[in-house]
Specification:
Length: about 190
Amino acid sequence: MKLTYKTTEAFLHAPGKEFRACLVYGPDSGLVRERCKQIREAFLGKNADGFALAELEMPRLLDDPALLADEIRTVHMLADKRVVFVRGATDKLTKIIEDAAEFFHAGVFLLVAGDDLSSRSSLRAWFEKAGNAASLACYHDEVRDIQQVIQKHFAAELIIADDGVIPYLLDQLGNDRYVTQQELAKICLYACET
């Protein structure tokens, strides 16, 4: 299923409710990173056991295609839920993921991160069509997105901004979510110290 702007927030709060896997991709690598972190924390909890996360790189899966299915089937003794996280995914993994999908179950969530995949991508198409998987596109932030991020940071730190501060920041911050988050963390730290 292709997640839309309206369905994304509900999915990020409970990714395992309907789905067993998600592809997070797009040109905004900072937003891809943020969304993957949100999905992991929502599925496992913020203080999850370190062994509940299995991280795999694409070259390793290409060398050993059965490894993904093995990781999905693995039951951990100390964690009732696990996330199998695949980084740097491209269309070369489509068949491997498709073959491993028969082993999906409620205790494991497959999280796949990729770069900007075209609309003709076989990997993207598989996640969009699979009934138990989702695809989440991460495009560069627009003004409304950056404004929401600023307001969320300020609210979390109980910072009340003077008139003109948010419009000024909107002009200064770029459209890469990771860079925006880093800059806002510095601003909030400075504001809280003074």
